[in-house]
Design a protein that fits this description.
The chain is of the alpha+beta class. The protein is 60% helix and 16% strand. It has one domain. Helix 2 packs across helix 3. The longest helix has 51 residues.
């Protein structure tokens, strides 16, 4: 059967659309992977700073000035504390690992806003001993 030009064009458009959707899915997957790696790196830096400061005899105060990171931490901590499953931030499990690590080490994580004299905004992550478990 000989296809009409309209049918050939329709098949071509369908193939192109399918390829575009496939490429978009690949790009979305890559973006999610990169975002997860960034969150894991952020949480690892916070955990290492907490460990270093405590072992050095200091009280940990980790400042996070990146707006996106600060917003993610605030929402992740809020959702974790509330047990909010319906509206969790992306990669909530990454925050869970830090919160569970802190709990296993008899620590409580606190997140507070701070304003610096040069008008930068951010949050500071601090920890305190969990007196209930000690």
């Amino acid at each position: 059967m000989i296809k009409s030009l309209g049918m050939i064009l329709s098949d071509t458009i369908d193939e192109l659309e399918s390829a575009r959707i496939t490429m978009q899915n690949i790009a979305d997957s890559e973006n999610l992977r990169i975002d997860k790696e960034n969150k894991e790196s952020l949480v690892a830096r916070i955990r290492h700073a907490i460990i270093y400061d405590i072992e050095s005899g200091k009280v940990p105060v980790i400042k996070v000035t990146d707006w996106n990171d600060a917003a993610w931490i605030k929402k992740a901590k809020k959702d974790f504390a509330a047990g909010n499953i319906a509206d969790m931030v992306s990669h909530q499990h990454v925050w869970y690992t830090l919160a569970n690590w802190a709990r296993n080490n008899d620590l409580i994580i606190d997140v507070a806003k701070y304003y610096h004299y040069d008008r930068t905004y951010g949050i500071q992550v601090t920890v305190a001993p969990n007196h209930q478990s000690i």
